[in-house]
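User: Hey, quick favor. My workstation is busy. Could you predict this chain's structure for me?
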Amino acid sequence: MNRTKLSKKAFIDSAKVFPGGVNSPVRAFKNVNSLPVFIKCGKGSYIYDLDGNKYIDYIGSWGPMILGHANASVIAAIEKNIRYSTSFGAPTILETKLANLIKKSFPSMEKMRMTSSGTEATMSAIRLARGFTDRDKIIKFEGCYHGHVDSLLVNAGSGAATHGVPSSPGIPKDLIKHTYSLEYNNINHLEKCFEKNGENIACVIVEPIAGNMNCVIPDLKFIKKLRTLCNKYKSILIFDEVMTGFRVSNGGAQELYKIKPDLTALGKIVGGGMPVGVFGGKSKYMDKLSPLGPIYHAGTLSGNPIAMTAGIRTLELLSKNNFHLNLEKKTKKLMDGLSNLAKKNDIELLTTYAGGMFGFFFTDKKSIKNFTDVKSCNNKIFEKFFKIMLSKGIYFAPSSFEAGFISSKHSQNDIDYTLKMANDAFKKISKLKL
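Assistant: No problem, here it is.
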């Protein structure tokens, strides 16, 4: 019996109107040589496809669903406000309320602007940095993904890494020459770049915990050196916390590492699953934006009232009852369990986590300790593992280069079942000698 018959039909239909049948590349399941399942609905830690198959969801819409799917309180707030209209293109008090909730957890964001996506937030933050410093050059890091902005798709992670495309056609060479792409966690490369080009560097943008080349925890010395060098050369430090904001702690990675960036980009969780982005920082920078200053930023749907409503209720719920402490305990149990089971079955597996964000990485080399060594990734093992787990009702990211996410609705039973199925998968894989 074909358990994904309706999903396959849906993919054939979607491929007629969308390139590759999807609206974002990783969704196509190309990295696991499979066809995607089409999702019909979700509730709590579970999602259900068109054929009625149930999955424990470890993607959570790539991070936003930290409260689980269809949280009753968030849905009730949306239903209440959606009656008044879905958009105004004019100011509402909802924008101010959400901004104040964000500022409480991210005090470095003295002022901020709403956008409709994380890509817009990072793009706007870089424009602001360039406009404020009157410099063109920027530093980013290989494997970090900051959205599909032209000057940032240089050795990008996420979908770009999955499909083996370090940079995309269609990007003018004149833009690329303004972007220095350095190795993540490499202090030596960073220092040399600043020594040679520091007077021309407008900003450094970084994922303080990388999530688009799997989940990579930074060297604390590296993060501190970023702050020191930006101070020395009067460059602006931008933390892209679209993924980590409210996910690894209530105040994001900057709270964990006690490093205050000049500008921060947020998204995902701050919209409660609705399309949203935010960028903000010190007032002296933000006040250069129009209409106060000359640096232009606008957006018809920026501060959309429904997105603001979902974000407000989500952040209110996150602030209660040791939320992130309990979330990390679940993540730790899952990662420690996978690590122990892999060892038991003689499979090389790296695991890492922070808060409700995690990563695991199959490798051929016992000496590898760094997720940034993409060449060491054993995609054959990952593909086999992914397919076995999916067939058992467990939905991990369909790429070796993506982080995973846990919600407050994931139960101990969910995790126990996941580990039981993982042990079965590892047993099968160890016999295949992939």
